[in-house]
Amino acid sequence: MLKFRNSFLIIGFVSILIIGCNKDENENQAEIDLIGMWTTTASSLDLRINDTPILQWYEEELDLSGSEVEDFVEGLIEAFTKELSGSIEYFPDYTYLSNFGSLPTGTGSWELSNNNQTLTITNNGNYESTVMDVVILNSTTLIVSFERNDSEDLDHDGTDEDLSLKIELTFEK
Question: Model-level pTM?
Answer without folding.
Answer: 0.76
